[in-house]
Amino acid sequence: MRIDWLFGVAYIVGFGAFLIAAVSLVRRGERRLDPGTGPTRTPSAAQSGDDDATSAYLDRVTAELRLPAVDVAEVRAELADHLQDSIASLEAEGLDRERATREALARLGSADELGRHLRQAHQSTRRLLAGVGGGVFAAGGGFVLGYLGGILLALLLAMVVFVITSVLARLGVPLPDLNDNGDTLNSVLLGISVAAAAALATRYAVRTSAGLSRRAPRSIAIFWAAAGAVGFGWYSIFGMRGAQSWPGVLVDLCIPVGVIAAAFVRIERPMPHVGRWAVAIVLISVVGVSLLGFAFSEASVSGGTSPTLVESGQPNQPVDMHFDTVAPLAPVGWLPGGNQFYGGGTGPDWDGTQITAVVDPNAAVPMSTAMANWHDVRFEAWHGFLDNPSVSYGIDPHYSSPFAVQPAAVHDTSIDAVFHFERMRSAGSWWVILTAVGPDGHRYRLGDVGGGMSHFNGSAWDWLTAPL
Amino acid sequence: MPGRIRGQLLKGTTTLLVLTVLRDGELYGYEIAQRIRERSGGAFFPSEGSLYPALHALEADGALEASWQESDRGPRRRYYKITKSGLGMLAEHAQEWAAFSLGMGHAVGGTER
Question: With an 8 Å Cβ cutoff, is A64 touching chain B?
Fold first, then answer.
């Protein structure tokens, strides 16, 4: 227990130190991107007294620099200062203003060459490596902060949507039915959180790399945008698993786009410092979460496959479970005594839902012998009839065919198959029936194994490629 | 000394000259150029176009520190100050230059060593 406590403290302190270091690194890098907030207040071009000729020369020099804004401003101010002194000195030697300006500019040499040499002086390999390393570190911090911010943002959006839909519902406006036991909400929340995390991570990486390596953010952004789009894009489409829905998949697909936008949009300007707004947002979020929790307290919000088998013969089952929709029951006597199916079971979520029809282990003959005259033994999954949001009660008679079929493996005391309901977009409530073709060539129902409720559990790619 | 030959000789010595004049105190860019000319009696006058890249490279290497300071006339100026690392670099460069100039003296003067 003591070790757990120490581990917890070390975890919080270590994680906090990481975040503080990452944010400090970002701020340090950013100071070189914004002339207005840097450590040195630099004079503007106007203050430096540029005239047309010197301005044109300085424009050409700075066009070659491709440095962060603060460095460009410093170089320009320094050269303007130099030219001012040089011109004054030449005028004192008797040259008129125009000739003095020409001579002073000539002494500085080619503007393009000077700009290139200055850029090379700033952009050393050591600084580039520092920029790359700092960018990676800052991206880690940005991802964590972005994820936390994304959760708050997603909850705020959910709150707004909830309020709007409540008002519309009260006004009698027809709304789409999104009662999918929280799958839409969960997938959208996760997508928005990761999108915000990926965007902030990329932005932090660009700005920190640019500041530390003394390169213009736009020249750095293309590399981080490519890396972020590929990395986060792969993760959002193939790696991020969980509850899914069409809105959630749409958000997932937007993640690489958001990364590219975050790398380029307004990247030359300083990032907004949230300050007291952060406190206000947190307070609003807490209130919002409380309201949402109250509003959805009756709803089931869960992901993954959670089959709830309801065996035949339960006292609360309806009289007509519409099993005849599947096939007529096999005539009595076509199966030896003791070989009646009476139950089912499920396997672990990651291995699909294992459906097993079990018979009496003390039956007179093994199942393989009893089924000798039957062929094409299979389990059929039918959409279930929902009388209650969490429990399936028989087959929905609105459907005329199963939504999934699996050939059955016949063992001595059981028959089984695996269904991947967690990979089927519209599985939802289901009921599984065992059928086979009898000696007369007609398909019969051998028994109902049970029903349950499944949630899609996979990546955006799984969702897009899943069978209906 | 013809300008072309002087330019070739000066190539690579800007760092040494800059560090040398900054050993005596903080200076800004134009002042550095003037100070080099004064100290050499006008013999050395680094190309102004090469002075600023050299100053910025030395700053990036940690040999110099730069800061914007108020000036008595006009806008703020960027002053350079030599650092501890810069003093070490100066000693190293001065030693190399002494060995080089001695060797050149012997070679040009034809003195046997």
Answer: no
